[in-house]
Amino acid sequence: MDAGGRHIMSEIYQIPLRPVPTGRPRFSRPATHCPRCQCPLPIPRIYSPTQPYVEEFQKALSIMGAERWRRWAEEHPRMPLSVRAIFNLQRPPNTRFEYPTAKRHGDTDNHSKTILDALDFFVPDERVVELYGRKQWAAQPSVELTVGAYTGKLHEGSAE
User: CA dist 7 to 13, 36, 58, 111, 131, Å?
Assistant: First the structure.
């Protein structure tokens, strides 16, 4: 419990999935035709190339019990959240780099967006006020995710 009598919840999830950064939205050409004249309809379909990974991540979190977060968020509607994500990328055998900094490994912020998209299924991501992300080499690809109530001062250095 914190000073306001609220239950502070924090959990760590070790998800054995390959970290995938969120890509830019893609547009496809319309495949449907107008029923009257058979001309193509000029409405492109917008889709996310990482949506299947987000759904897979959501399933993994559901299996691990993240449904508790939905109930907790409803009970504590104003509690800000903190998210910490460690992205374990499999090290290529021929790399000489100490950290995964090549473009093909994705940006840390795009990896974090995938995590937040998946978490949005359980807790609205606008409640996340603190976000920490790190990419590192590991023997097996995975994501270590810590979600918890933000207990620090929201405006450090302010007059409050």
Answer: 19, 61, 24, 29, 21
